C-alpha cells in the first residue's frame, strides 16, 4: 500500500533548532522524526512512500537516500520552489498513487495509533476519507456529529467557524491527529495551487462521507515546539 509523508513544513515554532536542521530530521533518541514516520508506515503495510520536501530539502533528500539504501522504498516530491500546503502538496504527488486507498501522514506526528485499525475502519465506513481525531487541548477543532461524520470546523482562538450545512444537530469538537486514509477518488475534486486538506474536506463534506475515528488511547505527540520535542524524547527513552 502507498503513503505520503508530509515533510515540507518549515518548523518555525521550533525556533533556532530548524535554522540548520529541518524539523523532520530532529533527533528523537537516535532516530530522526522522518525515520520514525517511515518505520511506522512500513510496519503497518504502507511500504511504498513518497515524501514532500521544501525547507533544507537537500538534507531531507540525503536522509531519504540513506533510508532507501537500507531497504525502504521512498520517492521524493520536490516543493523547493513553492511550499504547497497539505492539499496542494498531495495534488502535486497524485501521479504516485494507484486505485487503492492510501495514507496521508503528517511527519511531525509521533504516535502509536494503530494504522491498520484506521484503514479497517475506513474500509468499513466507505467514505472518501477517514481522519484520526482525538480529545485533546487546542484551539482548532473538527466539528463531528454522532455518526462520526465531519460537519464543520472551528478556531476557538479567532472565533472563526465553518459549518457544512444548517443542520442543528449536536456536534462534538475533536482535534485532528494528523493521519488520514483517503480514497484516490478525491483527486477528481483537487486542483493545483496552495491550499490545505482541511479546506478541501470542508468543501466536500456536504456531498461526500468524510468519516472520523476517535483514538484517545496510547501516546500522541505533535513535534511543534522545543518543549514537545523534549517531551517525546523523555516519553520514548
Shape: globular
Based on secondary structure, the structural category is alpha/beta
The helix/strand order is EHEEHEHEHEEHEEEEEHEEH
Strand count, sense and barrel status of the largest sheet are:
10 strands, mixed
Give me the number of helical elements.
7
Please estimate the helix content.
Answer: 25-40%
Report the count of strand segments: 14
Beta strand %: 25-35%
- Terminal CA distance reads 30 Å
The Cα radius of gyration reads 17 Å
Outline the low-pLDDT stretches.
Answer: none
Mean pLDDT: 96
Would you kindly provide a written description of the structure presented here, covering whatever features stand out?
This protein has 237 residues and is of the alpha/beta class. It contains 7 helices and 14 strands. The strands form 3 sheets. Strands 1, 4, 5, 6, 8, 9, 10, 11, 12 and 13 form a 10-stranded mixed sheet that branches. The protein has a two-stranded antiparallel sheet with strand order 2-3. Strands 7-14 form a two-stranded antiparallel ribbon. The longest helix is centred in the N-terminal third of the chain and has 13 residues, at 57-69. The radius of gyration is 17 Å and the shape is globular. The two termini are 30 Å apart. The mean pLDDT is 96.
